[in-house]
Predict the structure.
Amino acid sequence: MPPRLLLLLLPRGGLLPPLRRRSPALSPLLRRIPSNKAPGYFFLSPVCAFSGYSGMAAGSPEQQQRSVVVRETVELTEKEEQIFRRLLDVVRHFGLGTQLRVAGGWVRDKLLGKDSADIDIALDNMTGQNFCEKVNEYLELIGEEQKGIGVIQCNPDQSKHLETARMLILDIWIDFVNLRSETYAENSRIPTMEVGTAKEDAHRRDLTINSLFFNINNNSVEDLTGRGIEDLKKGLIVTPLPAKATFLDDPLRVLRAIRFAARFNFTLAEDLKEAASDERVKSELGSKISRERIGHEIDLMMSDKHPVKAMCDIRDLGLFYVVFSFPENSTPPVFDKCDWQCVSHIEAAWNLAYSIGSSVFSSGSDPKLQDEQRRLYLYSALFIPLRNMFYLDKRSKRQVPVSSYIIKHSLKLKASDAETVVNIHAASEKFAELVLLLESSVDVRTLKEKLEDEYLEIPTDSVKRVCAGLILREIKDFWRVALLVSILSYPEAENAADIHNKQDELHWRKEKYIRVERAITDLDLDGVWKLKPVLDGKSIMGVMQVKSGGPLVGTWQQRALKWQLAHPNGTMDECIEWMKQSQSKRQKVESSTRTAF
């Protein structure tokens, strides 16, 4: 994502204004049907039901179908009243005659009874930078410290079409920008900007619910499109101007409409859906909008309250392959109804995680890690149907998972996101064997033979711990996510005699996850990836009496790890003794073999 151009105007001792970052707010499982058109894949019958969710701790899906309660007036906090009084003092002292209006999301959220720290103020007769300079003049007059002014230059790739000034007002960062109107060139989403009226500014915004103003001068809400408050009450996502023209001007607004519909669980207006499905609009979205901007919108959806609703809308509007563009040649090729399959999987994943509860992403007390686990769990689930699809990367000349291509190239997300999703898919397949092992009295001899070699013998009652520990050490903090994905794909439910409907299947998978997760924690393996090796490479070299490392030392490190997992209370001296005995035993076997010949 290209950086913003930032001009800093700092008085002596002034504070540096930070760039604003978009922070995310941070159906039963479906019966799988084998597909003849795509061997090895299953189709999930498409049903959409969404959970009111924020951090896996919200009400039931039924509670989400509610009327929208919209307040008649904006209730200001004490801090907001102080800020607005200070700004009005500046206007009056210098006789500026400026109408100060808070614009957009802050007004919407306040009317919905939500707190918001995102204060953007629109000015009718001067630029944001000029007004901020007047604020500093006033601060100097009353004997207060002047503040730094940050000027964010216009940057269309960041959806910044006009210069914005920022400064700290009573410890809150405020954005200032003048009212504007805009017109678009035929083949560009970069508008020509002009100073406009409040009504022109309201109509040039993406959605009616985002076009509301709060006039600070007269303490009133202004609905200059004539339908912003009505649409808010109805829970409707509508564009102020005709939807198709709005989307052709800036196709990114299609994804913003979907994102806000999902955030508030609102309904997309019929004319908006028709415009979003238009072939020309879809083509413009794919050609005029950078992949970084598309990926940013998708990531916000995934991190918000109703990601499944957003993905269903993307699919239903025919936007799936525009947003999640595939590489030219994949093996196997993209199969029929791939978009339905992907969205059905994320829906199933959502409901499975929701049924289990917030503990599914608990990892210590780090909320950022929990949010990251939740986000990448959803991406992993969305791309489950693609996990066995690959393409030939021309640069590296190797086969790369299609899911990695979509994350890195179609969405331009972090390379580490792609790597984690691929690792989750790989670990989930290993978990499938482990689930069977932990859930039954299956004969462990075959697995025991895989783990052992001529130097290492693992006690039969430790096989499960060693196997699980090795998997967890690979996937680390994301092991619960990988387990969830594995349970999501587990085929046994279709043959279980007590599965009569989708709700039974959801319960069956939930209980299976809980049992396996408990079995792993009972083995004291949560955090095993942090376990310090009982023998490091230097110690192993000492036992082996070699002066330099190499593949042989690495092999013994892996053996020592398995020994440690099998003997969690074993000491370094005991491990060294095991190594010596193993080597001595092996040497005797080799010696007797040579003697026999």
Observations:
- The domain at 67-234 is CATH 3.30.460.10 (Beta Polymerase; domain 2).
- The longest strand covers residues 172-178.
